[in-house]
Design a protein that fits this description.
single chain, mainly beta, Methylamine Dehydrogenase, Chain H, five-stranded antiparallel beta sheet, five-stranded mixed beta sheet, globular
C-alpha cells in the first residue's frame, strides 16, 4: 500500500464564465496499469439509469492503494467533494470551487478547473466525436449559504446572502463543459434559472440538468445549444435518471401537495406520465431504472417509507412494499434485472425481487449511512458508512462477508475503476482514495442480527415478555405526551430563499 497525497491549488475568487487552471496536463496521457485500462463510471451511480451496479471489480476484502487529501472548501471551509466519476483512467470529483481530476493508478491530481462557488454535485463524462467531455454545474443562484452556520440557522433568508468574501452579484448558475484531455471549454456556459443540486445526466447526446424550482434543461452536447426546457413547478433537489428515451425526476411534496415521479421524453421534454403515491407522503428519493422498472422510495415521515416499482412505459404501480425505516432521498435504490437493494439510515439493507417486491433477505450492519451511497460490485453489495466503515454483503445469501473498521471519517460514495474502486471521503480524511482487493484480508460469514435464532429466542421469551410489555406501555404513555408531528413545516417545500442542506456538505470537517 502506498499513499500519494496531493494538495490542490485553491481559489476563492468568484467569477463569471469558465476559468481554467490545468495542473500537469501531460499526466493525463501517462501510462497506467493494464488492469485499470478503460475504467468507466461516467455518472453518479455508474450511468444515467442510476443502477449503482458494476458487473466486475475487486472482490472483498479491500485495502487502500492511495489517499489524496482535498480539504473542504467554500464558506467556512465546510463543503466537501461530490460523488466521483471515472473516465479514461481519470477520476473526477466536483468541489465547491473546482472540478478536480486524479490519475486512478497513483492518486496524483492531474488537473483543476475553476468553477463558480456552488453545491458539490456530480459531473458526467460524455463522448462527443472522438473526445471525452466533462459536463458539470456551477453557481449558487442568488448567492451561497452564509459562512456562519449559526447565522443560516437563525435566519432563513441568510442563504440568500453571500458567504464571507463572496460578492453575490458575481455568482451565477451555469451548465458548463470542458475537454477532459485539454481542459479547454467545449462551449460557452449555459445560464440556468436557479441553483442545481441534481448533478448532470447524459442520454442520447443530450446533457440534462434540473434546478431547485423544478425547471429541467436539456442541452445538445455537440455545441451547447438548448434542446428543450420544461418547468415542473415543484422542488427538484435529487439526481435525475434517464433510460429508454425517458428522463425521470423525483419532485418533492409541498404543504398541500404529494411528491411525484415524472417521466419526460428525452428528445422533446414532453411529459409522458406522472405518478403520485397512493398513500400520503412528503418526500421522494432519486430514482433508478432497470428491466422496464422505475424504482423509488416515498417517505411519509420518520420510519414510514415505501419502496415502489413503476412500469417505465406508463408509470403504473407494479408493487409497493412498506418498510419501517427512514431512507436518504439522495441515494437511489441499487437495482438489477432481478433484485432491488435499499439501505436505510441505520445501515439496514434489504433485497427485494425486482418483478414482485418480495423480500429476499435483509442485513443490519447497525452503522449510520446518512449521506452515503451503496453500490453493487460483482456479487457483493458494498455499504459505506458515516463513520468510515465499509461492509460487503453477499447478494446470494444476504450474509456479511467482510467489513472494514470505521476510522471516523465518512465514506460518501464509490465509483468503479477496473480492478480498483475510487472513494470520496469526508471529515478528517477529506479527499479521494482508491481501494483494491486484499488477498490477505480476513473474511467472515455473518448472518444479520435481524435473522431470528429460534433456538435461543424461545428459551428467553417467557421471562422477557412481561418486562417488554411493561416497557412498551410506559414508552407509549411518554411518547404520546412528548412527540409532535413526524414532519415539521420545513419538509422540503420551503420557499426558494430558505436553506436546503447540501447532500455532500461537511459542516464540521473534523467530526
Amino acid at each position: 500500500m502506498h499513499a500519494s497525497p496531493s494538495t490542490p491549488r485553491r481559489s476563492n475568487r468568484a467569477r463569471r464564465g469558465l476559468t481554467l487552471a490545468a495542473i500537469a496536463p501531460s499526466l493525463l496521457v501517462a501510462s497506467v496499469a493494464a488492469a485499470q485500462s478503460a475504467a468507466v463510471w461516467t455518472e453518479f451511480q455508474g450511468g444515467p439509469a442510476r443502477t449503482g451496479v458494476s458487473t466486475d471489480g475487486p472482490e472483498p476484502g479491500l485495502r487502500q492503494v492511495w489517499h489524496t487529501e482535498v480539504p473542504p472548501g467554500g464558506p467556512d471551509e465546510r463543503f466537501g467533494l461530490s460523488a466521483p466519476i471515472v473516465s479514461d483512467d481519470v477520476a473526477v470529483a466536483v468541489g465547491p470551487e473546482q472540478v478536480l481530476g486524479f490519475d486512478i493508478s497513483s492518486g496524483t491530481q492531474v488537473f483543476e478547473v475553476d468553477r463558480d462557488l456552488g453545491p458539490s454535485v456530480p459531473a458526467a463524462a460524455a463522448t462527443v466525436g472522438q473526445r471525452t467531455v466533462i459536463v458539470y454545474t456551477e453557481g449558487w443562484g442568488d448567492g451561497p449559504p452564509s459562512a456562519d452556520p449559526a447565522a443560516t440557522e437563525a435566519s432563513p433568508s441568510a442563504s440568500s446572502s453571500a458567504g464571507a468574501g463572496v460578492d453575490a452579484d458575481e455568482v451565477d448558475s451555469h451548465l458548463a463543459a470542458f475537454d477532459l484531455d485539454t481542459q479547454q471549454p467545449s462551449w460557452a456556459p449555459i445560464r440556468l434559472d436557479g441553483v442545481s443540486r441534481t448533478g448532470v445526466t447524459v442520454l442520447d447526446g443530450t446533457a440534462i440538468v434540473g434546478v431547485n424550482d423544478g425547471t429541467i434543461t436539456a442541452v445538445d452536447l455537440t455545441d451547447g445549444s438548448l434542446t428543450w426546457e420544461r418547468q415542473l413547478d415543484a422542488r427538484l433537489v435529487t439526481p435525475l435518471a434517464a433510460a429508454d428515451g425517458l428522463v425521470l425526476a423525483g419532485l418533492q411534496g409541498g404543504r398541500d401537495t404529494q411528491p411525484e415521479v415524472v417521466a419526460l421524453d428525452v428528445t422533446s421534454g414532453q411529459e409522458r406520465w406522472r405518478h403520485e403515491p397512493t398513500t400520503a407522503s412528503a418526500l421522494v428519493s432519486a430514482v433508478s431504472v432497470a428491466d422496464g422498472r422505475v424504482l423509488a422510495l416515498f417517505a411519509a415521515g420518520l420510519g414510514e417509507t415505501s419502496v415502489v416499482a413503476l412500469d417505465a412505459a406508463d408509470g403504473a404501480e407494479a408493487w409497493n412494499v412498506r418498510v419501517s425505516a427512514p431512507f436518504d432521498v439522495v441515494a437511489p435504490p441499487v437495482v438489477t434485472a432481478d433484485t432491488v437493494f435499499v439501505t436505510d439510515f441505520n445501515g439496514h439493507s434489504l433485497a427485494l425481487e425486482t418483478a414482485t417486491g418480495e423480500r429476499r433477505w435483509d442485513f443490519a450492519q447497525n452503522t449510520p449511512t446518512l449521506q452515503t451511497v451503496p453500490m453493487l460490485v460483482g456479487s457483493h453489495l458494498l455499504v459505506p458508512s458515516l463513520d468510515g466503515a465499509l461492509g460487503a454483503i453477499d447478494i446470494e445469501t444476504g450474509e456479511l462477508v467482510w467489513r472494514r473498521a470505521d476510522d471516523g471519517s465518512p465514506m460518501r460514495a464509490l465509483a468503479a475503476a477496473g480492478e480498483m474502486l475510487i472513494a470520496v471521503r469526508g471529515g478528517a480524511l477529506s479527499g479521494v482514495e482508491a481501494l483494491e482487493h486484499d488477498p490477505d484480508a480476513p473474511l467472515v460469514r455473518e448472518s444479520s442480527p435481524t435473522t431470528l435464532a429460534l433456538g435461543r429466542m424461545v428459551g428467553s421469551m417467557g421471562l422477557a415478555a412481561v418486562g417488554v410489555l411493561a416497557l412498551v406501555l410506559l414508552a407509549g404513555r411518554v411518547l404520546s405526551r412528548r412527540t409532535g408531528p413526524a414532519l415539521t413545516d420545513n419538509d422540503g417545500s420551503e420557499a426558494e430563499d430558505e436553506p436546503i442542506r447540501d447532500p455532500w456538505e461537511d459542516e464540521d470537517p473534523t467530526q
